[in-house]
DNA sequence: TCTATTTTAAGAATATAATTCTGTTTAATT
DNA sequence: AATTAAACAGAATTATATTCTTAAAATAGA
């Protein structure tokens, strides 16, 4: 059974989503508690799925992936089996980091991270446009990024 | 001075961006090395900025933020000072997790995470549309998400 | 309100992993 | 070939995670 998050849980989550390498001691100190309850709460949050995983966030640009592109796509056919196939194909492309089925002016919104404009063009030509039933495709090339985070504001939950 | 990443560095990064709680021992074992060089390499990768931070990835839905929306925006004025002001305002909204300046059919692409449709509407009405010089605003409501990750494929770098 | 039950926390003890240190090997440079 | 710098192995140390036991607080039922 799922329990509800109290204020302490929320604070722990807020800290860990900002820096997951913090020691339980430092969290405990900040909350005026000892390590054991903090430790147990964290384990519970992991076990119950509030915390999905712990990851290192890399600097894409530094690693050589300098370009982020969003691609809006409409499909010509909308059968269930085809949609599933489409998503499956998309997931196999290593450039793609996000794939959302959306309502609005597109059927899908993709986010991809690539080396540069050439790599983007290669993706479009030799991968994306090979998929069947492709309708309208519209790209938004990122010029600069003002904010990009995973961190969600927990003051409102 | 920046050094280039060798294959060992790349493998370490790949492991840590998948699970940053792995022990240096387990990484060392997988790479057939001992803990000291792994430890030193990780510290170097942190220091030189290849690793930006370590974070806990939360389950947004479980926490009560069930809706992801992308918003494409065009502005009516494009003076530099206004663009900066716009980005600054946007960054203050806790709902926004991403804000990209883009080229294409929009000036900006926002990604936001909110409780539900009502919260989304509230954001639009009482926050977004209060900003001056706003032109076209187009929302893409996420119906389902096939893939959503930070993890980039390092086999190509 | 009292008692039983469950939950939560504290504090000490232990296990595990991170970090440091020293000496050796390997690779690069001249 | 000699010299220097970088990278690694292995042991030693330190810090942190994890476990355990007991006490306090909260909750539910009579």
Automatic annotation (TrEMBL), chains A, B:
InterPro entries: ArsR-like_HTH, AsnC-type_HTH_dom, Dimeric_a/b-barrel, Tscrpt_reg_AsnC-like, Tscrpt_reg_AsnC/Lrp_C, WH-like_DNA-bd_sf, WH_DNA-bd_sf. Pfam families: AsnC_trans_reg, HTH_24. The keyword Transcription regulation applies. Residues 5-66 form the HTH asnC-type domain. Keywords: DNA-binding, Transcription, Transcription regulation. Transmembrane segments: none annotated. GO terms for biological process: regulation of DNA-templated transcription; response to amino acid. SMART domains: HTH_ASNC. One of its GO terms (molecular function) is sequence-specific DNA binding. One of its GO terms (cellular component) is cytosol. CDD domains: HTH_ARSR. PANTHER family: LEUCINE-RESPONSIVE REGULATORY PROTEIN, TRANSCRIPTIONAL REGULATOR AZLB. This is Lrp/AsnC family transcriptional regulator.
